[in-house]
Amino acid sequence: MLYKLSLKNIRKSFKDYAIYFFTLVLGVCIFYVFNAIESQTVMMNVSSSTKKIIELMNYMMNAVSVFVSFVLGFLIIYASRFLIKRRNKEFGIYLTLGMGKRKISKILLIETIFIGLISLFVGLTLGVLLSQFMSLLVANMFEADLTRFRFIFSHSACVKTLIYFGIIYLVVALFNVVTISKCKLIDLINSSKKQEKVKMKNPIICTIVFLISSIMLGYAYYIVTAGVDMLDKMIKILIPVGLGTISTFLIIWSLSGLILRIVMAVKKLYFRGLNSFVLRQISSKINTTVMQMGIICLMIFVTICVLSSALSLKNSMTQNLVTLVPVDIQFVKILDRNEGDKVLIDDSKISIVETLERADFNVKDYFKDIVEVTIYSSNDIKIKTTLGEYYEIAKSKYPMLSYDSSESFIKLSDYNKLARLYGKDQLILNDDEYIVLSDFESWAAIRDEALKRDVNINLSGVNYKPKYDECLDGFVYMSPNHINTGLFVFPDNALNGIIREKSLLAANYNVESDEEKQKIEDIIMALDENKYISKIELDAVSKIAMYGASVGLGACVTFIGIYLGIIFLISSAAILALRELSDSSDNKERYRMIRKLGADEKMINKALFKQTAIFFGFPLVLSIIHSIFGIMFCNYILETFGNQKLFISIVMTALVLIIIYGGYFVITYSVSKNIIKD
Amino acid sequence: MKDILRIKGIEKYYGTKSSLTKAIDDISFDVKEGEFTAIMGASGSGKTTLLNCISTIDKVTSGHIYVGDIDITKLKGNELNKFRREELGFIFQDFNLLDTLTAFENIALALSIQNISSSEIENRVNKVVNDLDIKSVMDKYPYQMSGGQKQRVASARAIITNPKLVLADEPTGALDSKSSKKLLESFNYLNKEFNATILMVTHDAFTASYANRVIFIKDGKIFSEINKGDGNRKEFFDKIIDVVTLLGGDVNNAL
């Protein structure tokens, strides 16, 4: 009997359950998809360094999943509370008929289990389908072989999802029992009668608050964009964050009062059709939900920023590597040391090739295309020297840069040897000329300004003038990012007698296949334990390690960013939807009155649409405005990682927003349409 | 005077053939322009069903209802809504004011639904509120008003669109006797000054005695009909009580 009643209830109130169901399905689906990544990565053929990163990522993913399950748990409890509220009257009738609270709890329990099972089934099915696309993305992220694509079903993720959501449902069921046992019959029966008290805010206070918060917000925007140089310390980032957060709440508070006042003053607009009604509906709702609205707005903002930068981060990180890591291995060591151990000082006199031979590593056996070059520097020539007349301007414009570091030089012939290996253009210089290489955009811009001013550099009594009035794009050290702030290429003779700073050896492994390369890589890694090498200092960077780390790190951040971003989005949209629906019984009354006044269905639907759209749109619009500046700031921060394909990321983010946020909007609209109809 | 409302042999059945309930069983009557008519009957007599049929909220099973020259039983969809908002005014027992709007906005809403310009809305509202003595509550919300004030605001809303017919369903049902009296006096005022045609459903003899004419309904049929004629309200009240006594015990408890 109870079972039948429960089933009937679900079928009858299926539309009411829509939001609840949608949230559960989305939650299960996302949870599965992201936990299944672990199984997908196991199948992939990737290098050992990438494997380490993947391990780290899976570990982090597990931790994040616990957090996510808490968020989803709270969300589901919130949603089920809404459902109970919706059905207060129904429970009231059961109670007056003499049904015990225990039995009502049982009905709810059966319903929870039933809905839970369906949502788990649907969510897992969707999740398994979606995770096939995800595995493509995963493979792409970790640059793994795509040819061996196959259908993957992750048992562990499935079991994990079942366990986590099983616990969540159990908590929800317990929570429902408590709610039911606490409620009083009189409240249940009278629950639909609620008189709204309307409070108008003082328009003058609203205006003042609005102006102040706008100025605060504008200042926060300014700090993160044009005035970004003010953020020279990490802690200072709290200023725009704090200002932005406070002003968001204040703007929502003041706008909800102000917009109503303004539209009311425009009588032609206010007294047209159902406008007055719609406006009052929204403002009363926003009035009572300033806190929630603010939090939701900030959450959407974080989501948009995280999604769009997470997606572009990986793009930017790996795209750079193709050009930034042209050879398999590179060693760097400091030359001509004056301090330290005898072994260290002795070693700093010899070339890297010799060093390696002393460690019983014959470069000829493993390497091809070997190029060893020397980097020079001079204590007399610092950045402020090479900037010439532009130094004073640069200093006032970018005061936090250090202008006292020594510049580095390279011989033209050395650079050309490297350039040939790196696949770069050969350079030509006259005897009295120099060229500046830089790939760090902001530094290159500073140097360009200096070069336009034709700065002459004096080396050992000879004057050299710039060949070009701008920097050339180039580098010598391999690195995952554009970090070459400036390297000067001089004619070979010019650098005779200048202090040697570093030696740099670049080479390729003399094998073809990935497996053999990995073997050489392992031998080089083992050199760390070598008796000789452990006494001296020799830095090595390899293509394999750099790809692994960079790719892995990018993917790691991307996945966790997307995961959290989507969960945030689901949470905020669900809360908004439930908020909108929770007053539906009041709205039902109101719309019934309007219908009696003779408003036709089209008019009423339009009013309802407007109401829902504004309620959903208000925090969205504010957060999108936030995001424009937020993304600009992220862009600035990520600049060291290279120029990113922001556009694609933003399109992807918009797509996610439309599917999830739009989905909740559509469901909310159709559910509330259904509610006001009967 | 011409007939505003003509009801021709309407019937309203509920249920299936095997268990048929005749809520309205062949009722016909006319209401002239500017008439204030009350329909009395016990609960279950069919008076609310009758009102619902006239207000197009419900459909008749057979028969015709003419408002002016239009047969409203033939109207469909948006024509119905248009008819309802342009030709009818409603007053309900539970006021049906929107709690989020001020009294002024509540009254204005009836006009703004008809797309009337805001300047005209203001003129028309101001004119009516003076007459109904609710000017002081114009900026208040329903929860700040007394029941009587709410019902007078609702009356203003019903009359503001210049409807052909004002339908009132137990308008004094939720009011104390003093507020009832004041409301009914304003009905009389609207009836005389605005020449409003009012059709009121009630089970209260006192309320009915304010009308010019009372139609009694019992078991879905017209039982009797009396006119106020030239007598005063007290005499009319006594006449009504006589009929109610005749009707049987059903209505007695309503007094």
Q: Could you report the average pLDDT of chain A, rounded to the nearest whole number? A: 83
Radius of gyration of chain B: 18 Å
Number of extended strands of chain A: 9
Describe the strand arrangement of the main beta sheet of chain B, using strand numbers.
6-7-8-3-9-10
> How many individual β-strands of chain B?
10
Oligomer: heterodimer
Q: What is the CATH topology classification name of chain B?
A: Rossmann fold
Calculate the terminal CA-CA distance of chain B, rounded to whole Å. Answer: 34 Å
Amount of beta strand of chain A: 5-15%
Task: Please tag this protein with its features.
heterodimer; A: 678 residues; 3 domains; nine-stranded mixed beta sheet; 25 helices; 9 strands; B: 255 residues; alpha/beta; Rossmann fold; six-stranded mixed beta sheet
Outline the fold blueprint.
The complex is a heterodimer of chains A (678) and B (255).
Chain A: H1 2-12, H2 14-35, H3 37-43, H4 48-86, H5 88-96, H6 101-141, H7 155-182, H8 185-190, H9 203-224, H10 238-265, H11 267-270, H12 275-288, H13 290-324, E1 329-334, H14 342-347, H15 352-358, H16 363-366, E2 367-382, H17 383-387, H18 390-397, E3 406-411, H19 412-422, E4 433-437, H20 441-452, E5 457-459, E6 462-466, E7 487-490, E8 499-509, H21 514-526, E9 539-542, H22 543-582, H23 584-596, H24 601-637, H25 646-677
Parallel strand pairs in A: 3-7, 4-6
Antiparallel strand pairs in A: 1-8, 1-9, 2-3, 2-8, 4-7, 5-6
Helix pairs in contact in A: 1-6, 2-4, 2-6, 2-7, 2-22, 2-25, 4-7, 4-22, 6-7, 9-10, 10-12, 10-13, 12-24, 13-22, 13-24, 13-25, 22-25, 23-25, 24-25
Chain B: E1 3-14, E2 21-32, E3 36-40, H1 47-54, E4 62-67, E5 70-71, H2 77-87, E6 88-91, H3 103-112, H4 118-132, H5 147-159, E7 165-169, H6 177-193, E8 198-202, H7 205-208, E9 213-218, E10 221-227, H8 233-247, H9 249-252
Helix pairs in contact in B: 3-4, 3-5, 4-5, 5-6
